[in-house]
UniProtKB/TrEMBL annotation:
InterPro entries: Acyl_CoA_acyltransferase, Bact_Acetyltransf, GNAT_dom. This is GNAT family acetyltransferase. It comes from the Bacteria. Keywords: Acyltransferase, Transferase. It comes from Bifidobacterium samirii. The keyword Transferase applies. GO terms for molecular function: acyltransferase activity, transferring groups other than amino-acyl groups.
Amino acid sequence: MTVHIEPLAPDWYEQKAAVQSRTWRELNEGNIPQEIVDAITPEFALDLTRRHADDPSQPTLVAVDGGRVVGFVELLATPREPMDRPGAAELASLYVLASHHGRGIGRMLVEAGSKAVGNERLALWVAGFNEHAQGFYRRMGFRFTGLTQDEDFGRSLEMINY
């Protein structure tokens, strides 16, 4: 099958939410408190998806393989605090099913997301324990800025690609 990237449309909401819940669980189980892992149910993710779907400053794209959503990227035109990166957009979420890792889908989503938000300068936070994602972002040209923040689930690292 050929993977293609497209803007999130209502037909994809439930599949995107299922991927969000599943990848959240796969990544975080055993790394953060279980009650936080358990909070991102498919229903919770669907509610978030619907609430953000119509905001043009928050583009969401999905990766589709054989009629199934296998990943997604969410961006923000303006980064949230405490990020202080004038002129950058925020790569807020990037998740790809583990079964589809290593196929270039993450790269496709980041590149298409950058175009969708209209900004090649991206900043993001990545969980300190997520060495796989940190390596991916470094291969994509991002670098660690030295800034960290503590969240409910531990330390996060700021990375930028400019």
